[in-house]
């Protein structure tokens, strides 16, 4: 078709779309550029080209293409959201927030856009501002798991462990097999020094996740905190046997645990394992 119609923008567009379908994004971009050279106001070519740039993680180029779409066509929420996504990936959080707000203005009933705005604040360490946005999102969808997880993280950063635990509990109630939810809840209770509650939730997490090794590590850490060293060592040994690569997560929960000679001895026995 290209040979027959070398100056037909639709022919180049269709070729580009075919390349894109095959995940040959560089070739797709070249073909879209030919289409745009022939018809510079071909907004769908810019739109699809932006998608190809995003898949190649060329966010600056994607933004340029998306902004051209906005110049050629009526502003759309999905375009503003895509520009926001690009800024987000480039860690330009303030710019991402501006674009997400523009998208949200056009799509006011979308709580996930509010969540994306909240996350830009979280990435900047603005816990209060993040939580305020999450409150708006949760008025639309109170028990949405991701919203509750991030709300809990904000409250934990602010040292409000009781509030944080409530949000994490909401998440595991809705998604009882969610490792992220259980991990967050146990971390929260551990940091709050509510060790008995942490032990109870760790046992529940092991049951709900069919014994995921990370929770054996967490259970060991909690048992050490409760001065139940013998039980703690047994849990640590089993955790090390199943998933030694997760040792780092065990230490992150309580860095001072490495001051325990018992723990050091257990780790030493597994030093020959190259995966540690």
Account of the 3D structure:
Helices cover 74% and strands 0% of the residues. It is mainly α and 276 residues long. The chain has a domain at 1-73: Tetratricopeptide repeat domain (Serine Threonine Protein Phosphatase 5, Tetratricopeptide repeat, Alpha Horseshoe). The radius of gyration is 25 Å and the shape is elongated. The mean pLDDT is 95.
In terms of topology, how is this protein built?
Elements: H1 9-21, H2 25-38, H3 43-55, H4 59-72, H5 77-89, H6 93-106, H7 111-123, H8 127-140, H9 145-157, H10 161-174, H11 179-191, H12 195-208, H13 213-225, H14 229-242, H15 247-253, H16 261-269
Broad structural category: mainly alpha
CATH class call of the domain at 1-73: Mainly Alpha
What's the architecture of the domain at 1-73 in CATH terms? Alpha Horseshoe
Overall morphology = elongated
**Approximately what portion of the residues adopt beta-strand conformation?**
under 5%
Number of E strands: 0
Global mean pLDDT? 95
Helix content: over 70%
CATH topology of the domain at 1-73: Serine Threonine Protein Phosphatase 5, Tetratricopeptide repeat
By DSSP (H or I, 4+ residues per run), the number of helices equals 16
Provide the low-confidence segments as ranges.
none
Q: Please, what is the CATH homologous superfamily of the domain at 1-73? A: Tetratricopeptide repeat domain
Gyration radius over CA: 25 Å
């Amino acid at each position: 078709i290209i040979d027959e119609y070398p100056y037909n923008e639709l022919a180049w567009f269709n070729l580009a779309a075919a390349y894109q379908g095959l995940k040959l994004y560089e070739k797709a971009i070249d073909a879209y550029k030919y289409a745009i050279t022939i018809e510079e106001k071909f907004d769908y070519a810019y739109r699809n080209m932006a998608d190809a740039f995003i898949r190649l993680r060329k966010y600056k180029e994607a933004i340029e293409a998306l902004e051209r779409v906005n110049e050629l066509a009526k502003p759309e929420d999905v375009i503003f959201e895509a520009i926001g996504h690009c800024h987000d990936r480039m860690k330009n959080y303030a710019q991402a927030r501006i674009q997400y707000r523009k998208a949200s203005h056009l799509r006011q009933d979308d709580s996930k856009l509010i969540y994306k705005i909240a996350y830009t604040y979280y990435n900047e360490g603005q816990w209060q501002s993040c939580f305020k946005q999450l409150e708006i999102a949760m008025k639309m969808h109170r028990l949405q798991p991701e919203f509750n997880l991030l709300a809990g993280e904000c409250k934990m950063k602010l040292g409000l462990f009781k509030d944080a635990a409530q949000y994490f509990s909401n998440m595991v109630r809705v998604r009882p097999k969610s490792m992220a939810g259980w991990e967050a809840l146990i971390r929260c209770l551990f940091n709050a020094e509510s060790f008995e509650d942490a032990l109870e939730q760790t046992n529940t997490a092991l049951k709900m996740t069919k014994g995921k090794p990370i929770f054996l590590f967490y259970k060991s850490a909690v048992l050490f905190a409760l001065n139940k060293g013998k039980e703690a060592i047994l849990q640590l040994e089993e955790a090390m046997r199943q998933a030694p690569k997760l040792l780092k997560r065990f230490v992150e929960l309580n860095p001072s645990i490495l001051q325990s000679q018992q723990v050091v001895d257990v780790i030493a026995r597994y030093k020959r394992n190259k995966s540690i």
